[in-house]
Write a structure and sequence with these properties.
Shape: globular
Structural class: mainly alpha
Helix content: over 70%
Largest sheet: 2 strands, antiparallel
Strand content: under 5%
Distance between the termini: 23 Å
Radius of gyration: 18 Å
Order of helices and strands: EEHHHHHHHH
Number of helices: 8
Number of strands: 2
Length: 191
């Protein structure tokens, strides 16, 4: 997943937008669900505790299975966290919170690897800044979108959660393989 891809002299942001949309779904799922007593503070504590520990083990995983498979594995962890919210249950929430902490560590290390592979010394700061700005914009864009989508809804029913989940999960399959871009960069550097 190249962070920035040039096409006809213009920057292609489609992959970054897909990456950001994946997080929209995550933030959407944190909304209130009636009859569910899971504690968000406990869930976040578990997520970040596991995330902190897993960051020590994620770099060898990226080195062993590669950044692409690591991103897919991390994405599966996110998808499983989101999927467990279809039938809210405290035990599943806390177990999935540990799983998403692991997945977050894998995703962040792997995306940092891709950023490094697809940036040179002269573009690293720019690419990092663009990536970070787009990630932060996902909060504004995602919350604005769901504000207008759900403004008249008092409770989020199962069908709405499933529809949103399936739509945003589908976006993950739009991410293309970086092989052609990496080959192109290697040819440019070597010649």
């Amino acid at each position: 997943i190249p962070i920035l891809q040039m096409k006809d002299g213009k920057i292609n942001f489609s992959r970054e937008i897909t990456f950001s949309r994946f997080f929209y779904c995550f933030y959407f799922q944190l909304r209130y669900v009636p009859g569910f007593s899971g504690d968000g503070f406990t869930s976040l504590a578990i997520i970040y505790a596991v995330f902190s520990i897993a960051n020590w083990f994620a770099p060898p995983v990226v080195a062993f299975i590669g950044p692409r498979l690591t991103l897919i594995s991390g994405g599966v962890c996110y998808a499983l966290f989101i999927a467990q919210l279809t039938y809210p249950n405290n035990y599943m929430l806390y177990g999935a919170s540990a799983l998403i902490g692991l997945g977050a560590a894998m995703i962040w290390v792997a995306q940092g690897n891709f950023l490094t592979l697809n940036s040179g010394p002269e573009t690293m700061e720019r690419n990092s800044g663009i990536f970070w700005a787009m990630l932060q914009m996902s909060l504004i864009i995602g919350n604005t979108f769901f504000y207008f989508q759900l403004r008249d809804i008092e409770q989020i029913d199962r069908a709405t959660r499933l529809t949103v989940r399936l739509f945003f999960s589908f976006l993950v399959f739009l991410v293309k393989s970086p092989e052609s871009t990496v080959k192109h960069l290697c040819q440019r550097i070597c010649t």
